[in-house]
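STRUCTURE REQUEST FORM
Protein name: MotA/TolQ/ExbB proton channel family protein
Source organism: Nitrococcus mobilis Nb-231
Requested output: structure tokens
Priority: standard
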Amino acid sequence: MNVLDEGQIGSASLAGTLARVRELIDLGGPVVVILGFMSIIALTILFLKLWQFRSLQLGDRRTAREMLRLYRGGRGKEAVALACRSRNPVAQVLALAIRGRRRSELSEARVREEVVRVAADQLEALRSYFRPLEVIASLAPLLGLFGTVLGMITAFQQLQQAGNQVDPAILSGGIWEALLTTAVGLGVAIPVVVVINWLERKIDRLAHEMQSTVTQVFTLDLLQTAEDLAPSAESAEGDDERYENAGFRADDIGFRARVAGE
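Status: completed
Returned output:
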């Protein structure tokens, strides 16, 4: 098969698809046209959000972890410099928290307030265009149902005009054409609902990661104290075990002495 034949097959397939779309529009009427525009808007927003998430490197968790490791090691300046090479929102908010903590003239409450504000702005930017998707997800089934009601009205009008010469095909044909708009409305709404939930889940995970990493900057002293106390706790457990063993040996010696005396 040469290139010319493949081009002809592709053109024929495209022509067939356009013909089916035109037939669908003729059967469904203006409601299907509106639903088609809504699906195009939803797809555009989806591609826009995917591009936004990819450009912001939302899957990059290594940078924030490396920044925390550097900050714990007393290398806060290197941690902030590392954030300059990443557009990840967690890394940016974490860098702001580290810069604020390194400036002794700023109170912790003031730094926390600014970090919370910037984090909220970052999350709000990620949630942009969610409202149109929510409107499409809720409105598409209602529009489909509205088209079905209009189609049923038309079908019964045709049935009335037929009079005594009623043909069941007239009623059944009108009903399935009316139900077509409901199917199209659900076909638009269901994928949009799935997309909204997927996007919100990613943002919720990002918000949790942002809160967790920033909190570790403010509780660094507490974490270091816990690490320092860990060996002491192990030593205390060892001492308790030695004391228990010593007490057991003392009881054993006393028992043997009583047996010998008897």
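Reviewer notes: Residues 39 and 256 are 90 Å apart (CA to CA). Residues 232-236, 246-250, 255-260 have pLDDT under 50 and may be disordered.
Form closed.
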